[in-house]
Amino acid sequence: MIAKIKEAVAYIQSQYQTKPIAGIVLGSGLGSFTREMNVEKEIKYSAIPHFPVSSVEGHSGKLIFGELGGKKVVCMSGRFHYYEGYSAQDVVFPIRVMKFLGIQTLFISNAAGGMNLNFKVGELMVINDHVSLFAVNPLLGKNYDELGPRFPDMSEPYSKELIKKAKVIAAAKNIDLKEGVYVGVTGPTFETRAEYKLLHIVGGDAVGMSTVQEVIAAVHMGVTVFAMSVITDLGIREEENKITHEEVLQAAKEAEPKLTAIFKELIAQL
Ligand code: HPA
Fold this sequence. Notes:
By secondary structure, this protein is of the alpha/beta class. It has helices spanning 2-15, 88-101, 160-172, 193-201, 212-220, 245-268, and strands at 22-25, 38-44, 62-68, 71-77, 105-114, 124-132, 177-184, 206-208, 224-234.
């Protein structure tokens, strides 16, 4: 596994030599973020040795290198979800590669269903903790000591310092930033009404199908994490409501400028 990471890194470094200090993973409907970047190099996932192969046709995915907020960053345009059939190790492979490329901080976004009754569609929630339900832990199996310890501490997976800074940035920009616990599930079904209620009772403010495995792999390697959810639908809601993927994408798109503004400013302050 370490050899595979190193081969992927060697290929990438043969194409682009600058070391990024931060990595960015974008969630559903949040891809136009990269317009804010000063793009220096794009590398298709399909060209990188050992990178997972995208299951969706015409949805190749790429690493985008460049500058954002005056800092060198690498952005994953397209991520791998467990529900697509990838192993947990595949899902986190790009995170490990980005760490070996030099990132110290990882910024993650996702679309999520709101369960906190104070949340509205289109709002942003900074993730202050997570609950992993049913998603396979990417650290199962042999531990690679070069990556991190056998039993990683998870008492602060999301940097308190970055959360504090994000709140200051949001206040200055008049963005109503919510905060809460993200529940990671496998999907691909949205939750039943009973499941949304259950996840709320176990302490979740929002629920989604990504992020948790990536965060575990990052924390394992000592990478600092900051993550935000766009609340794209409300799980606990009126009886006749149905949730569609289209509605999720639309809400994410509308909230994207706010998310971009916070990420950009946080990166500028790194
Ligand atoms: N549940 C799970 N994942 C999601 C949701 C949801 O309601 N909305 C966006 N991703």
